[in-house]
Design a protein that fits this description.
The protein is α+β, with helices and mostly antiparallel strands. It has helices at residues 27-34, 54-72, 75-79, 100-112; strands at residues 11-13, 23-26, 49-50, 82-89, 97-98, 119-129, 133-145, 151-165, 168-177.
């Protein structure tokens, strides 16, 4: 463990079971599961996971950038990777926002509704990326105090579709949702991962 009690993670390359894929395993997992001083080999292959592809890494960076933009309430940064023909399904009315102008108006309205900084985080991110199309899904948390004085702290589901134009990824579809209680029909806003 590190001095602050957190785990120290150091990656090292291992045998490549699939040509063209980069594989890694953390020293800490290796030490805990295989014992100190164990060298990675085909016997420890079950502990390895594929590293992110370049496109997956670009999408991950875009997700992080968009989360920072929400926390900063930076409409320009948030919209900089939104396709002009984007379609957005949000957790609030209306049923959909079509086009970047409609999405921008919703973002501006949402940011202005908060009286405090917006806390925003994404958890359990899964990314699947090809050369021109990708999608991700995660659990997203938003928290803060809105202008009415009400506190918001909720988790919701986010699925995002991306399209690559040239060397830049754009959000072509964004879908945020919460489940509902089938017994009373109300949104389940207090669920946590």
């Amino acid at each position: 463990m590190g001095q602050d009690g957190d785990w120290d993670f150091l990656s090292f390359p291992a045998t490549d079971p699939q040509p063209g894929k980069e594989w890694s395993i953390t020293e800490r997992v290796k030490e805990q599961l295989l014992g100190p001083g164990t060298v990675a080999n085909s016997d420890s292959l079950a502990l390895m996971t594929p590293a992110l592809s370049s496109n997956e890494a670009q999408i991950r960076a875009l997700i992080d950038e968009r989360s920072r933009a929400v926390r900063a309430r930076d409409v320009v940064a948030l919209m900089s990777h939104v396709a002009s023909d984007t379609v957005s399904f949000d957790v609030v009315d209306p049923l959909q926002h079509v086009g970047a102008a409609s999405t921008r108006a919703r973002v501006e309205q949402w940011f202005a509704s908060f009286d405090t900084p917006i806390q925003h985080e994404c958890q359990d991110i899964i990314i699947v990326a090809g050369d021109h199309v990708a999608f991700s899904h995660c659990l997203t948390r938003v928290a803060g105090t809105v202008k009415s004085g009400d506190k918001v702290d909720m988790w919701f589901r986010t699925t995002t579709g991306y399209r690559k134009v040239g060397d830049k990824w754009f959000v072509s579809h964004d879908h945020n949702s919460v489940p509902f209680d089938s017994q009373n029909g109300s949104a389940s806003l207090n669920l946590k991962p």
